[in-house]
Specification:
The chain is an alpha/beta fold and 183 residues long. It has helices at residues 13-20, 53-56, 71-83, 94-103, 122-132, 146-153, 168-181, and strands at 2-6, 27-33, 36-41, 63-67, 87-91, 110-114, 138-142, 160-163. β4, α3 and β5 form a beta-alpha-beta unit. The longest helix has 14 residues, at 168-181.
């Protein structure tokens, strides 16, 4: 059975409702514009979990502060994390990130921190976060090689490192590791 949903996109809730209402063997046509149609064939049961999934299951949601000067990277990380059930706060540089963190440092469970930023880079931001809360869990992200970052942050207790570009699975894994191990 084929169904067409005009204006549906993989990121909107209309599609989620359409797909979750479909069954094995159904075909879902996604009409993104006048001349574009993508077809999705349901081959197995699909469970979609969005930002409210953890809350709906009665699990407390962890909060992640994303500090990155690149808007696209910040928004993608936010989207990935929210779809995984995390509560997300974003900041466009180290100064803004520190302001966000100072408001409620105990409410922020993990900081995803870009290394290379103008004004206040990731290394200085890291040290200032630790001055506010010595046990702050910080996952550093960078296009730099992990060995270079490990050398610069050796012995400082990073909760993890994530090399850009990263996949949603890699991001989820690093955040989960940071939450489970602490600093």
């Amino acid at each position: 059975m084929a169904r067409t949903y005009p204006g549906a996109s993989p990121c909107n809730t209309t599609l989620q409702a359409c797909v979750s209402g479909s069954s094995h063997g159904d075909t879902v046509n996604l009409a993104a514009g006048a001349y574009t149609t993508n077809t999705l064939v349901i081959t197995q049961a699909i469970t979609l979990q969005g930002a409210g999934a953890a809350a709906a299951q009665g699990k407390p949601r962890s909060t992640v502060l994303v500090i990155d000067d690149e808007e696209a990277a910040r928004l993608v990380a936010q989207e990935m994390l929210e779809r995984s059930g995390y509560r997300v706060i974003v900041a466009s540089d180290g100064c803004e990130g520190l302001q966000q963190y100072q408001k409620t440092p105990r409410a922020i469970d993990v900081v995803l921190l870009d290394l290379t930023m103008p004004h206040l880079d990731g290394e200085e931001t890291f040290h200032r976060l630790r001055a506010i809360r010595p046990d702050a869990r910080v996952v550093l992200t960078s296009g730099y090689d992990e060995h270079e970052v490990a050398r610069r942050f050796h012995g400082l207790g990073l909760a993890g490192f994530l090399q850009k570009p990263y996949t949603p699975a890699e991001l989820r894994a690093r955040i989960a590791e940071a939450l489970s191990t602490g600093t």
